[in-house]
Specification:
- The chain is of the alpha/beta class and about 400 residues long.
- It is about 40% helix and about 15% strand.
- It contains twelve helices and 13 strands.
- A seven-stranded mixed β-sheet has the order 2-8-7-6-5-3-4, sandwiched between helices. A four-stranded antiparallel β-sheet has the order 9-10-13-12. It has a two-stranded parallel sheet with strand order 1-11.
- About 45% of the residues are buried.
- The structure holds pyridoxal-5'-phosphate.
């Protein structure tokens, strides 16, 4: 028996455990402290009524022989794939429902997709980054090149034609930075990927937070993306499905002459047995008129929080990305503090908890992530404390 040696190359992730340890220690020493948590990357509002009704109805169907559902297609039910294809049409993206694969969330698929690619590929990953892209490739022993996202490029790095890569990860709107690629800049990435004959792995988990009509929601809004890109999306942030679990992955027939579509279908039908019927019914309800209206209300609540956060930073003259078109605000730490020093300072002086940028990569060392997923009154209160403190 030999272990996968690459697991030893994984860096221990101390980020959230260290945060928890520091917060617990502070709470123990100051039991009366009124802590405000703006560090979580999870949603807090419940599923909308249209989704809940659909879930209940589907549970009832499972109770009767005539309407019971056993195994479904591994790729997902037609009703959900059709609804997602229709959703893309509102962005002038034309997908065949067969190109859409339903999953239990974007994170699993972001890891699983690597089954299709040789270990010898070189992977290009921005820094700072959602840690899943890095760790899944480290586990497979792939060579990783990091791409500098920083203040000077607004945390939206562009391709460097002198660098060659086989797999490229992009996330827009970005976690952790909240930065969103413009149409022109994203087109440069698509052109680069096609030139390199690379595959672009595009994470669109936050597309629903985009309010500026000029910004692309999907990679397939760009010319030639259907020849180079796989898109991952999720109901998690869009509709509060973080605990209910549903997402989708688009693998176009036109990508690498259909080879990747065939391989992904084969992979999924072999290793995956589908998302629960009940959950898929709940997910499909998001795309009804009523469901969409309700979801937009929930998103507006978070967007309002994001606006409150960014207005506060504007008033303080602090440099940041995100805030609009994203639930994240990525701020430069004030007074020359690094991200852990600012974490300690904010916790001790304002009882506000955020996420140190260092947890997302080296280029996050001087930055700090605040999230808009909290309670609106608490977010306002946190902003008042921040203003008094800095
Ligand atoms: C939250 C998030 C997802 C969604 O993950 P799920 O597994 O669908 O819950 C995907 N990508 C990024 C960058 C995220 O932050």
């Amino acid at each position: 028996m030999q272990l996968n040696p690459h697991y030893r190359d994984l860096k221990q992730s101390y980020l959230f455990s260290t945060i928890a340890k520091k917060v617990n220690a502070y709470s123990a020493a100051h039991p009366q402290a009124d802590l405000i948590r703006l560090g979580i990357g999870d949603v807090t509002l419940p599923l909308v009524p249209a989704v809940i009704d659909a879930l209940h109805a589907a549970v009832e169907e499972q109770a009767h022989q005539q309407t019971f559902h056993g195994y479904g297609d591994e790729q997902g039910y037609g009703f959900l794939r059709d609804a997602i294809a229709t959703y893309y049409k509102t962005r002038n993206v034309s997908l065949d429902p067969s190109e859409i694969f339903i999953s239990d969330g974007a994170k699993s698929d972001l890891g699983n997709i690597l089954d299709l690619f040789s270990q010898d590929n070189t992977v290009l990953i921005p820094d700072p980054v959602y840690p899943v892209y890095v760790d899944t490739n480290v586990m497979a022993g792939r060579r990783i090149l990091f791409l500098d996202a920083n203040e000077s490029n607004g945390f939206l790095p562009l391709p460097d034609p002198s660098v060659s890569a086989d797999l490229i990860y992009l996330c827009s709107p970005n976690n952790p930075t909240g930065a969103v690629y413009s149409r022109d800049d994203l087109q440069k990435w698509v052109d680069y990927a096609n030139d390199q004959q690379a595959v672009l792995l595009f994470d669109a988990a936050y597309e629903c937070f985009i309010t500026d009509d000029s910004l692309p929601h999907s990679i397939y809004e760009l010319d030639g993306a259907e020849r180079c890109a796989i898109e991952f999306c999720s109901f998690s942030k869009m509709a509060g499905f973080t605990g209910t679990r549903c997402g989708w992955t688009v693998v176009p027939h036109t990508l690498q002459n259909g080879v990747l579509h065939q391989m992904w279908l084969r992979r999924q039908t072999t290793k995956f047995n589908g998302v629960p019927y009940i959950v898929q019914k709940g997910a499909a309800a998001c795309f009804t008129n009523e469901g969409m209206r309700q979801i937009r209300e929930t998103l507006a609540y978070y967007q309002q929080n994001a606006q409150v956060l960014s207005k506060t930073l504007d008033a303080l003259g602090i440099w940041y990305t995100g805030g609009t078109n994203s639930p994240y605000v990525w701020m430069k730490c004030p007074h020359g503090m690094d991200s852990w020093a600012f974490f300690d300072f904010l916790l001790a002086q304002a009882q506000v908890v955020g996420t140190p940028g260092a947890g997302f990569g080296q280029n996050g060392n001087d930055f700090f992530r605040l999230t808009a997923f909290g309670d609106c009154n608490q977010t306002r209160e946190a902003c008042i404390r921040l203003q008094n403190l800095i």
